[in-house]
Every structure is written in structure tokens, then in C-alpha cells.
Amino acid sequence: MWTVEVTGECAATPARVFSVLAEPEKWSEWNEGVLRIEMHGAFQAGTTAVMVLPDSTRLPFRFAWVEADKGFEDVTEVPDAGVVVRVRHELSPTERGTKITYRCEVDGPEPVAGTVGAAVTADFADVIAALGLRAEQLGE
């Protein structure tokens, strides 16, 4: 299994950051790697959705865990590559606001798992920074 964790911080509260995450249809407003999200239900565990990337690639996924003000986890199966990608987005309160942690696990054969994992996580630091900024702006 391939794993990486990326963290960042922002001045917004976990509740404010979660409010941004809880609207997947608006992720494209702050995440440059997302053209749109097509939701097939509410933002809750068990709901499926499709992430459409800027190059029109469609990635079906499901929400495996969603907890208000704490975060969520999504699971994407990539049958062509023989891997399953889990990304956990966790929010932890800090003295100054929120610690945002994205943890990616790719289960599958190497070197494919590492290649897929590196591609998935390449923009995590930028996405976390953009998420934090968006949450801070909403708090103004």
C-alpha cells in the first residue's frame, strides 16, 4: 500500500472549513483540479459522485465517511490500474484555527500504486491552501 499525508493550517474554524467541503458542487470554485462534481445524493457516507477533471476525465467515487466539522473520506476504484484510492480529509482545531490533513492511501500493485498516488497527491498542498483561504474568506 502506498501512503502519503499532507497538512496545512488556516485561521478559519473547523466548522467553517467543513462548510466549504460540504458543498462538493462548489469545489471547482477553489480547487483548480476540479471542473465539476456530479453528486448522486446528499453529502453523507454512502453517497456516490463523479469528479470531472479539467481534461474531462470522469472519476466515479463514493463518500465512505462524513462527519460534521471533522472531515470526510472518499474512495475511488480505478479498475484499469488495479488500484483503490482512499483520501481522508481531516480537520482538527488548533489555537489559531484549523489543521487540515489530507491522507491518501492507494491499495494495489507497485509500481502502479505509487504512480497513481503521486498523481493524486501532487496538488494536495495547493488544494489545502486554497481550501483554507476559501474558508477564511467566508468568515469575513
Notes on the protein architecture:
It is a single chain. By secondary structure, this protein is an alpha+beta fold. The chain has a single domain, classed as START domain (Alpha-D-Glucose-1,6-Bisphosphate, Chain A, domain 4), CATH 3.30.530. It contains 3 helices and 7 strands; from the N terminus they run βαββββββαα. It starts with a strand and ends with a helix. The mean pLDDT is 97. This is Polyketide cyclase. It holds the Pfam family Polyketide_cyc2.
Short overview:
The protein is α+β, with helices and mostly antiparallel strands and 140 residues long. It has helices spanning 14-21, 112-121, 124-138; strands at 2-10, 36-39, 48-52, 58-67, 71-78, 83-93, 98-107. Strand 6 and strand 7 (98-107) form a beta hairpin.
> Number of DSSP strands?
7
Termini separation comes to 41 Å
The biggest beta sheet is recorded as: 7 strands, antiparallel
Structural class comes to: alpha+beta
How do the strands line up in the largest sheet?
Answer: 1-7-6-5-4-3-2
Protein name: Polyketide cyclase
Organism: Burkholderia aenigmatica
InterPro entries: Polyketide_cyclase/dehydratase, START-like_dom_sf
List keywords for this structure.
alpha+beta; Polyketide cyclase; Alpha-D-Glucose-1,6-Bisphosphate, Chain A, domain 4; single chain
Give the arrangement of secondary structure elements:
Elements (H helix, E strand, L loop, with lengths): L1 E9 L3 H8 L14 E4 L8 E5 L5 E10 L3 E8 L4 E11 L4 E10 L4 H10 L2 H15 L2
Antiparallel strand pairs: 1-7, 2-3, 3-4, 4-5, 5-6, 6-7
